[in-house]
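Proteins fold reproducibly. Look at a sample protein:
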Amino acid sequence: MRIDGRRSDQLRPVNATPYFTEFAEGSVLFSMGKTRVLCNLTLEEGVPRWMQQQSKPGGWITAEYAMLPRSTQMRTPRETNSSGGRTQEIRRLIGRSLRAAVNLELLGQRTAILDCDVLQADGGTRTAAITGSYLALAIGLRRLIKNNELPSDTLRSPVAAVSVGILAGIPLLDLCYTEDSQAEVDANIVMNADGRFIELQSTAERNTFDRLQFDYLLNLAYQGIGELIAFQKNFLSEIV
């Protein structure tokens, strides 16, 4: 049994609250265990300048990511003047992941911005941000589809992400912070509902790993992401 009593192949409890903020075009408070991320969607007319210069058709999706100072056990200074390398990496990861969920050409000359603010961090903040941001994005785009402002097939396959790792030689799904900080190997996997990979990030922290172990981690991630996508579909089917 793990520190929180889960099996090695068990996700933490997953929960999502829609319309958490009033003004965003899509808003979801997404939780995995004690990790809580507020995901807000803003839809703006127009596209980035580089798209205009290249006469690139369609729209764009980008993301912002930040951790509140007391989202962690000890206060983390707020990033005010510039963002650190980790923050920039996660922003790009979220953006890449969500662009795989949308037909950008059908989005039209629009930019979708996902603001992901970590309210409480207990491991897996980037994967929770991706999974929760897809819900916020889907809420906003479904409204446009319902109003006949976008084609019905603008939204592609749902996208979700999960962490996996090896601790004391045992492969684990969805690591909490204590597990992640002690893991010999950790990985973040992003996939869509068709079972296709979007991103794989894997690192040997304290020990190397072989092909068999990595295949086992991928199988764990495949299972966990399948459960998360089932949650996403059920969540979206129950809200307007």
Q: What stands out?
A: The chain has one domain: 14-237.
